[in-house]
Specification:
single chain; 2 helices; about 25% strand
Length: about 110
């Protein structure tokens, strides 16, 4: 959520986002992207276009159901991207969708 939040302006924050919660079995195909696979400027506040290309490639090639990428905001944390078009996606259990809500105080600037 923080990864998304840092790029959202309070005046344009969408209200139709969802948070996906799922149990991911060990036998699901996953790709764990290392920092070496990312562009050198992947942590910059203006993310390089190549970074979006990595996600586009993940979705288009469907080589894995899950892409795990390092967090640009929180060191040692990771973001898990799920590909709902991947055939293994149906193996995910306890998939729950709920509105992605953020506290408006997050947009308060001092």
């Amino acid at each position: 959520m923080l990864e998304y939040f840092v790029h959202v302006d309070s005046s344009t924050a969408p209200n139709d986002l969802v948070l996906a919660i799922a149990s991911v079995p060990d036998n699901i195909s996953m790709h764990h992207a290392s920092e070496d696979e990312l562009p050198p400027t992947w942590r910059d506040s203006e993310a390089p276009p190549e970074l979006a290309g990595l996600g586009d490639d993940f979705a288009a090639t469907a080589k894995s159901c899950v892409l795990i990428v390092p967090s640009a905001i929180v060191p040692r944390e990771h973001n898990w991207l799920l590909n709902p078009a991947h055939p293994e996606f149906r193996k995910l259990s306890d998939v729950q969708l709920e509105p992605l809500l953020y506290d408006r105080r997050m947009f308060r600037h001092k």
